[in-house]
Amino acid sequence: MSRALPLAGVRVLVGRARHQAGALSAELRQRGASVLEIPFIEIRQPRSFRPLDSALRNLSHYDWLILTSVNGVEALWERLAKLRLAKRHLAHLKVAAIGPATKKAIAKRGVRVAVVPEEYVAESVVKSLRRAVKGKRVLLVRAKVARDVIPQELRRAGAIVEVVEAYETVLPKASSAKLSAAMRSAQHRPDVITFTSSSTARNFAALLGGLSRAQARQQFAAVKFASIGPVTSATLRDLKLPVDVEANPYTIPALVKAIEKSVLAERL
Known about the structure:
Layout: E1 11-14, H1 21-30, E2 34-37, E3 42-44, H2 50-57, E4 64-67, H3 70-82, E5 94-97, H4 100-107, H5 122-129, E6 137-143, H6 149-156, E7 160-170, H7 174-184, E8 192-195, H8 198-207, H9 213-219, E9 224-227, H10 230-238, E10 245-246, H11 252-267
Parallel strand pairs: 1-2, 1-8, 4-5, 4-6, 6-7, 8-9, 9-10
Antiparallel strand pairs: 3-7
Helix pairs in contact: 3-4, 5-6, 8-10
């Protein structure tokens, strides 16, 4: 194994949404991996932007804005532009972001981020904000299907929380046949499958179709399941699927390094 290309000869399946797969795929290829992209999720607009637009037209009513993903940032700014609102309308808000990628996406638009939790999971966001939000109005912008930890815990801390959907994640139907074909092909069968969110884990399970979990474990026995963090890992385990690799911290670069470390350990 070359030090310059530590993942040479390793086939990695990237299951991120198609428009987001590039960064992970690029880092893997730089390390010599052969990358197959089969999206486990597809990002779509919500059925209605009315709740989000209403919140944005009344931004002066809020004290905090929480964004949990890059998708949420992109959707928010698209709606701001549609409503002819500018970053000055956010100037009074304190902004919290889950993870460095979300922070970077917000900062790129000229808005300061006040809080990024030490760990990039909902529980850490709550810990970071609990003392700051008592009696404050909080706008949480997120996906249609998401965990309720943040709003529930912030309300217990005395915050007035409004949750609005900026996008939704759905199952790409074409991916089921592509996944089956990849597993049947000696040339394309992956050595590693990456999971970058609980949605990718749940949708992967859905893409397995009629396979029982026992059959799935048997079919993927020689494949490493690589998770971006503990929340995604917990979802995989809830689905009776393995977790062979877990990133720490919970970022794309750390996920790539964790995969590299696992492959190296296996080859020694």
